[in-house]
Amino acid sequence: MNIPETLDWMSVNRPALLALIRVLILVLPILILVPGFIWLERRLLSWMQDRIGPNRAGTFPKDFPIKFLRGKRTFGLLQPIADGVKLFFKEDITPASVDRLLYFLSPAVALFPAFALGGTLPWGPNWGPYQHLTPIWNAEIGILYMLAISSLGVYGVVLSGYSSNNKYSLLGGLRSAAQLISYELAMSVSLAAIVMASGSLRLQAIVEAQETPLWGVIPYAHNWFILTPFGFVAAIIFYICMIAETNRAPFDLPEAENEIIAGYHTEYSSMKFAVFFMGEYAAMFVFACLFSVVFLGGYNLPLNWVAISGENSVMAGLNYWLAPLTFLVKSLLVFSTFIWVRATLPRMRYDQLMALGWKNLLPAAVANFIVVAIWIMGSKAYGPQGGIVAYVGAALIVVALYFAVTRQTKAAKAFERRKVDLTEGDTPSPTRRSVELV
Amino acid sequence: MDINALLPTDMNGWAHLGIVGSLSGLAVLTAIGVVAFNSPIRSALSLVLNFFTLAFIYFSLGAELLGITQIVVYTGAIMVLFLFVIMLLNLSADDPSQYKRDAKPVFAGIIGLVVFGLLATAVLAPLKAINQISAPDRNEFNPIGWGSPQAVGKTLFTGYVWPFEMISLLLLVGIVGSILLARRKVTS
Amino acid sequence: MVLYLAVSMSMFFIGAAGVVVRRNPVVVFMCIELMLNAVNLTFLTFARYAPSPLIERADSTWMAGQMMVIFVMAVAAAEVAVGLGIIMAIYRVRANVDVDEMSSMSG
User: Fold this and answer.
1) What is the DSSP string of B69-102?
2) In angstroms, rounded to a whole number, what is the distance separating the alpha carbons of residues A146 and A184?
3) Out of A149-158, A310-319, C1-10, which region has the weakest mean confidence (pLDDT)?
4) C-alpha distance from B1 to closest chain C C-alpha (Å)
5) Which helix (H) or strand (E) holds A214?
6) Exposed (0-12), middle (13-18) or buried (19+): which is A437, by Cβ within 10 Å?
7) Could you tell me if C102 lies within 8 Å of chain B, comparing CB atoms?
8) Is A212 a residue whose pLDDT tops 70?
9) Nearest CA of chain B to the CA of C1: how many Å?
10) What is the mean pLDDT of chain C?
11) pLDDT digits 0-9 by tens, A39-97
């Protein structure tokens, strides 16, 4: 059976069936990989915290039927499955006075965006057999589709917080929703700069725009946007916003266990909690995929093998056929940096989080956008020398962002060190802290 | 029987009509849900579903950018704002036993349906003949599509740039106004 | 085209009925949004099926409906922000939200 011809025939005569196959090609691997992500997170986190992590589950017992596998270890790969089984058999407690319909619907509403988000991701180039298999929808509005679906992720959080009939859940849910919509803005503007530089919202066009020579001069390397000055700033901003969008540490105040009793998913036990968990990891993975599409060159291998060794060479063929694998490896690397950041940085307080999103990231993203616009006009009018403005502008933005985030103004320092007198006068309102901070 | 001869010429076959018809039905049902539910949260969620369905109806009309903007702006931002307000104010469901029930809603419903029927026959009947898409999907102005971001963006920034700037001023005024309205009085 | 216009007419009528019938101001706001969306759908339907040839500029002749929809969306967003701010401000003062009761212009 000649697969490319079958796919071509199906794209004309059976488009709905082919679309269903495309959906299954995306959704089933994500479902299968989610336990792998959980395992990766627990092991990597443990190694960074100087411990070993779960490595017992999955060791084959001594009387296993297949002799070769007796006693062999799988390094804890079955641990997430054990977690799943445990969660499945746990007692499913439903509080008595919840809003029934919303309570049962909100895990589904939280899970849906995590899977729908991957609809426009290109796992392979636009020719040959891969063009019929991926992306699910080669939309002209690719990136905007992903922003739209990620803005639907707010509903899962808000509805689960509200329907739990628990004021801490509601508070956690609303805070998380406010965090999500704040960081959505900076995310959109930082992506808008990349869209301007590549000329199209279509994710495949963004990958193809990165196949040009690096910085315009080096023909043997791809022009990955993270290596360009404006793209570097946009990547930093987008990375921070991605961590905030998926409610990961250090932005996980609304769902932290020792802050607000697990926030908006406090009242969800067993499988419903597992659904939230699964949705969070799937969303993290798809955002990591988006990062690698937009900034890390998508499905291409690092060097421009088509320019180095010609179009029909072995490496160019590998570049084509291994495209999904390279994409997966890049996304897993970005995913591992999420875990790295979680292990490293302490949790941010809510007002620090909101201040970062509105006062630091959004202006930086807008400034980056302006720099990209000036660069495009400059390089169109004056040639590549006009691109110097991009370097200078991006460096200035990075320096300004660093100073804005890490140095406190005098007023902020004075606020943190103020004394509050507890002995007389009115009771201070809850938003003012009542301890002297040193 | 050639189904394509009976249908509007832009809808190929029962499948397309079925999809658009069910989306339309869902839109009308959720619109009724907004008005009919007693609890404001249910109304808001019904409206969310309505906007989501409308986005798909826009996609079926070919307006991709506007459909996705509908999801981002209406479903993703405006309705979240509504839900915030309802949850923070803790608005409870209207209690139907609090106001007396009489025959007024029934009469209002009947009159409303009659007016709708009259207007529909007056307005929609002459328009039944239009079942062909007139806006060209691709021409030299928009080589990619009528509803594509390239075409809409080009038009917005060339022909309609003055309204665009005015709207951005309006949004700025809206932002400043809503921040001022939401501030608590600072007790000194 | 009649299908789309019937949907938008129904939505508009239902929204108008909601504005009259409902007592909760937030729900009244939502019905106003419903009416605005019905108008958006009408604009888009006509832009697709019967675009206006009145606009003489050749480059943007067929886009006017979509432009109008963009502006309606932007205005609706601004209006919702300000309107909900007003409702919250009223709620802080009065603590009851009933459109029929909020009839005094003072205070």
Assistant:
1) HIIIIIIIIIHHHHHHHHHHHTPPPP-TTSS---
2) 11
3) A310-319
4) 22
5) strand A213-214
6) exposed
7) no
8) yes
9) 6
10) 84
11) 999 999 999 999 888 877 777 777 778 777 777 777 788 888 888 888 888 877 778 77
A21-25, A259-263, A266-270: range with highest mean pLDDT? A21-25
For residues C73 and B74, the answer to whether their CB atoms sit within 8 Å is yes
**How far is the C-alpha of A137 from the C-alpha of A60, rounded, in Å?**
43
Q: Measure the CA–CA gap between B66 and B84, rounded to whole angstroms.
A: 25
Distance CA B148, CA B157 (A): 14
Complex ipTM, two decimals?
A: 0.89
Q: Give the separation between CA A354 and CA A62, rounded to whole angstroms.
A: 54
Measured between CA atoms, the residue of chain B closest to residue C28 is B35
Whether residue A272 is predicted with pLDDT greater than 70 in this model: the reply is: yes
> What is the rounded CA–CA span in Å between residue B78 and residue A319?
44
Identify whether the C-beta of residue C32 lies closer than 8 Å to the C-beta of residue B138: no
Chain C residues in contact with B88 (beta carbon < 8 A): 88
Rounded mean pLDDT, A420-426: 61
- Per-position b or e across B171-184, b if 16+ CB within 10 A of its CB: eeebeeebeebeee
Joined together, the tokens standing for residue A408 give 């406190």
Quote the CA–CA distance of B59 and A140 in Å, as a whole number. 12
List the structure tokens of A391: 């370097």
**Distance in angstroms (rounded) separating the CA atoms of residues A244 and A236:** 13
Could you tell me the residue ranges of all domains in chain A?
102-345, 349-413
Q: How far is CA A385 from CA A64, A215, A390, A428, B120, in A?
A: 69, 12, 10, 59, 63
**Residue in C1, C57, C66 closest to B131 by CB:** C1
Phi-psi region of A297 (alpha: psi -120 to 50; beta: other; left: phi over 0): left
Q: Which tens digit of pLDDT belongs to each residue from C50-92?
A: 776 655 555 556 788 899 999 999 999 999 999 999 888 888 7
In the predicted model, what is the mean pLDDT of chain A? 84
Confidence grade of residue B3 (pLDDT, cut at 50, 70, 90): very low
Question: Cβ contacts (< 8 Å) between A184 and chain B: which residues?
Answer: 76
Q: Which chains touch C (3 or more CB pairs under 8 A)?
A: B
What is the dotted CATH code of the domain comprising B3-94+102-137? 1.20.120.1200
Please tell me the least confidently modeled range out of A19-33, A159-173, B45-59, C27-41. Answer: A159-173
Residue A263 is predicted with a pLDDT of 66
Task: Tell whether B171 lies on the interface with A, counting CB pairs under 8 A.
Answer: no
Q: What is the bridge-based pairing of β-strands A218-222 and A213-214?
A: antiparallel
Q: Say whether B74 and C9 touch across the interface (CB within 8 A).
A: no
What is the DSSP code (8-state) at residue A297?
-
CB distance A107 to A92 below 8 Å: no
Please name the helix (run of DSSP H) or strand (run of DSSP E) that holds residue A213, with its range, or none.
strand A213-214
- Residue A328 tokens read as 């997966």
Tokens 């989080």 found at: A353
CB of A241 closer than 8 Å to CB of A358: no
- Determine contact, residues A344/A337, Cβ cutoff 8 Å: no
